[in-house]
Specification:
Two copies of one chain form a homodimer. By secondary structure, chain A is an alpha/beta fold. The first copy, chain A, is built from 21 helices and 15 strands. Chain A has a nine-stranded mixed β-sheet with strand order 1-2-13-12-7-6-3-4-5, sandwiched between helices. In chain A, strands 9-10-8-11 form a four-stranded parallel β-sheet, sandwiched between helices. Chain A has a two-stranded antiparallel ribbon with strand order 14-15. In chain A, strand 6, helix 7 and strand 7 form a beta-alpha-beta unit. In chain A, helix 9 packs across helix 19 and helix 12 crosses helix 15. The longest helix of chain A is centred in the middle third of the chain and has 22 residues. The first copy, chain A, is globular. The two termini of chain A are 50 Å apart. Chains A and B meet through helix 1, helix 8, strand 11 and helix 20 of A and helix 1, helix 8, strand 11 and helix 20 of B.
């Protein structure tokens, strides 16, 4: 098999473990902390998790390993979208298992959680594992989006575990997957299966974050990759001086990715969905804000700029959500038939005009025609508008163009506006993990093995103090139930891990807010460049700006 | 001014000069070679360049500097699209000028060649230059696309040079800009201005390449950046196993960029425009070829893949070029009025059907509607179709979809086809130059100064033997006229540097051709990862696969 030079070189990289885990397996002991309770709805969560609720937080420390020496057979699952570092979680887990007892076995269930219930697996050995050290992607065993949540699935999972003598399952996933990990852990405990479940916090979206999770893995690498590209585009834009670049970045609901990229690159504009929702902004308001930057810059002779658009922002615009709901309603069931029979767009437009409320029609009317048509013509199998397909970067540039045309008529603007569009998502989810993600993930996996060895169940592998050098990282575990509250999902009350949105009173947003006017009118671009895996530590071991700001580590 | 960690670190990088230039200015002497003649049309070129034709190739070597010690005042110009390393050409030129004589002066003409005729400039000093060492972009003085080609412009340029006492102009540009540099050099010589002109070979497209130019600068960094992204997408695609990614890469006419990216990443498909033209391929043929890969992979259960599409490929499809010509004709002048008055697309379609030849209508009919409409609705100020706006990545995925639907009906295909689309161009033109480009560009600039000092005019700064370590690079100069031939441009015979297209019997294409069937049916992805500026030399000093193959350096 042919390999790239970097891939060969990365095989040699030795991930940094937290200091307390560096003494070897026999030198790791447990320090039990306080009993925990869930962040909200304690009584309800407790009732739902009678066997796993209220357990103690633990940290590891240097000292004699007191775990019962028992052979472990562990199954690992990658769940959901790719994130750089997933391979290293598995490598860390594997190395710790083998270091503990060479007879320990690691199964990898293939294609996501469905691999467990379909009993589709590989058994790892050194040769297999070594091919994936410090590499990106989830191709080691594949991933999938099947949810493990039904009693039926749990029964099958129990059977599969019994069949292979599996003693623990490690689930690498986002908020939903870790919620399901907790439910599975409770099921295993209630049914006295002897199988424990450990979760690991993964998502490039950055929305699995709370008092116990400083950062989800993959966020660092993905945002550095997008920031590399945005910085390159900024430099291009500042050289050619003739385009406005509208850059959409991945992240369906929370805007952590957009915000981190903005902090790393200082673009002229960055929309934050949470702010749009909080201020109940309209499309026109947003377009006006962007146009203000375009005009201010045009006055200085700068007919160029960069705007970052979070993927899911349109869903946070109240009037737009309302419009979508009305369209879904207008074409629900067989009502779509009448619409589909209309001969051309003019007739369809008349139909729409009659069907929508006056307010929604006003919103609809300002959309560019390509998006109007998309809303009506490309619907999912249930007849609903596919919001995720909306090219919001083109939507906003079209709206801005209209605003500028108005201002030009009034003599308020006399520049040129040539927009270009980009979407960055797939480019970052499978990059070679940064040193931070390589170290963090390897530690999460190694640490998960220690939690298993010490018999913990329903715990999240927790590595914290991440803004410090790895030597000072703190490894341990936290009951997943501690992060839960009750939320209404699909009409039912469910215990779930709270999704972390961008906090408008948090330090990262506050920093952005304090600087954005300056960035919008001037050219303050920062060019982060490509992720470096070698070289000066200040270049190749940099934490995210978000984490640095949250920890109060940013001067000025 | 705030800077990224990498930018700060790159300031410290010391570019590697060719060994023969390392002894200091006083230790560089000239070795004159043979008199040259143009690659074709010798008599015509000689007649057009009586003062600069037929000069000798020169190389520098270690030895006593015999140049006349004369104060130099040099003006430098960045011409055309951005390419990583442009700043370093200027830094190398500046450093050599100052090392020769601290009273030497470097002017930077702003915004491209127009800066010279508009007398719009900056004068460089250490502080200014130091801010741009080893950085990407052309923002140091900006670039532009104005061509210096008229007698009128040359007269003004002469005046500007006289005014500032300028002794030489260095033009950093592509094939057209270097052609114009030769014409300007001839003008300056004929008019005994005493000003010399030196060209430097820049373009990420890679099409300024010949016996004397092994590679144009920027190609290395840009293709490595695109290959990073394509590799990441391949890894994502091989993890998620559910999408076909159609990736368009920049490069309007030649397919060097696409080919280099394919050699670096081994995708399932890569179209090469030159092959499409040579084989007179139709859109359907191309779509069929891609569909063959989709089907072969689907049979193995792999409903995913990656296809690279060169930006300009549709212009190389004969039937498509004919269609475009007919559309331009159909709507020429006031013929467009009748078309524009038609009420809706159905009526317009009927108009088109009547106006196009039967063959072109067949081509038009298979296009997706969005592209049909684009061809007719988005025309340039002259009423012509804007071919560059055609989203060819979407065009081909749509055509492939149709082919697959046909095959499905016949029971020949039973997979899923979910295409996603990307375009990479602006992301790579202003990346921090790779060590190769940083070294090569600095050497080109340094070398340009030596050519100036020794009084050469109409020369290209030539650095060769580039597949070897920089120590062994060969620095010298070549008369630009040597690379010229006569071509018909805009109805006139013009002396121009021949644009280098991908040679179908060249080693890079031959290698691709020999492997592409294997790549198309199997999963042979290579993941190059981000450009590394530090670390093991086999990671951070890698030449392009194209150059390695051309030099016979690739085993297997």
């Amino acid at each position: 098999m042919k390999l790239s030079p970097l891939q060969k070189a990365r095989y040699q990289y030795v991930p940094k473990l937290p200091g307390m885990l560096r003494g070897g397996i026999s030198e790791i002991c447990v320090n039990e902390g306080e009993a925990t309770k869930s962040v909200a709805d304690q009584e309800k969560i407790k009732a739902l998790f009678p066997n796993t609720y209220g357990k103690k937080e633990i940290t590891f420390q240097k000292g004699k390993n007191t775990a019962v020496a028992k052979k472990q057979v562990v199954g690992v699952i990658l769940s959901g979208g790719q994130a750089p570092g997933g391979h290293n979680v598995i490598c860390g887990l594997y190395d710790a298992l083998k270091a503990t007892n060479k007879d320990n076995v690691l199964y990898g269930f293939k294609g996501g959680p469905s691999g467990l219930v379909e009993d589709d697996f590989v058994v790892f050995d050194d040769e297999f594992i070594n091919r994936f050290r410090n590499t990106g992607g989830f191709d080691i065993i594949g991933s999938g989006r099947t949810k493990l949540e039904t009693e039926e699935q749990f029964k099958i999972a129990t059977e599969v575990c019994k069949k292979h003598g599996i003693t623990a399952i490690v689930i690498i996933g986002g908020d939903d997957s870790n919620t399901n990990a907790a439910v599975l852990a409770e099921y295993f405990a209630a049914h006295k299966t002897g199988v424990s479940v450990i979760g690991c916090p993964k998502t490039i979206d950055g929305d699995l974050k709370n008092d116990d999770i400083e950062i989800s893995f993959g966020f660092d690498t993905a945002t550095k990759t997008y920031s590399e590209l945005i910085g390159n585009i900024e430099r291009d834009c500042n050289s050619a001086k003739k385009y406005w670049h509208f850059v959409k970045v991945m992240g369906r609901s929370a805007s952590h990715v957009a915000l981190e990229c903005a902090l790393e690159t200082q673009p002229n504009i960055c929309l934050i969905s949470e702010e749009v929702a909080a201020k109940k902004m309209s499309l026109s308001q947003i377009a006006n804000d962007i146009a203000d930057s375009v005009c201010a810059r045009a006055q200085k002779g700068w007919n160029f700029g960069v705007a970052i658009i979070p993927e899911g922002v349109v869903e946070f615009v109240p009037e737009f959500s309302k419009l979508i709901a009305e369209i879904n309603d207008l074409l629900a069931g067989n009502k779509a038939d009448a619409f589909n029979k209309l001969a051309n767009w003019n007739e369809k437009y008349a139909f729409i005009e009659k069907g929508l409320s006056k307010e929604s029609m006003q919103v609809f009317a300002i959309l560019p025609q390509s998006i109007q048509q998309q809303l009506f013509l490309e619907r999912d199998p249930h007849g609903n508008v596919q919001v995720s397909l909306i090219e919001s970067e083109k939507l906003f540039s079209a709206l801005v163009k209209d605003v500028l045309a108005e201002r030009k008529k009034k003599g308020l603007y006399n520049g040129k506006f040539s927009p270009l569009h980009h979407f960055f998502g797939y480019e970052g989810r499978c990059a070679f993990p940064s040193n931070f993600d390589a170290d963090y993930c390897y530690s999460l996996g190694y640490n998960a093995c220690m939690l298993i060895q010490y018999g913990y169940n329903g715990y999240l592998s927790k590595v914290s103090n991440l803004s410090k050098p790895a030597e000072n990282w703190v490894a341990g575990g936290m009951p997943i139930t501690k992060m839960m509250n009750i939320e209404r999902r699909h009409g039912e009350d469910k215990p779930v891990i709270r999704k972390a949105l961008v906090e408008l009173d948090g330090a990262p947003f506050k920093f952005f807010e304090a600087h954005r006017k300056e960035w919008s009118e001037n050219t303050c671009y920062l060019y982060p460049g490509a992720i470096q895996y070698y070289g000066p530590t200040e270049v190749c071991d940099v934490i995210t700006r978000t984490l640095a700001l949250e920890k109060g580590l940013v001067e000025e």
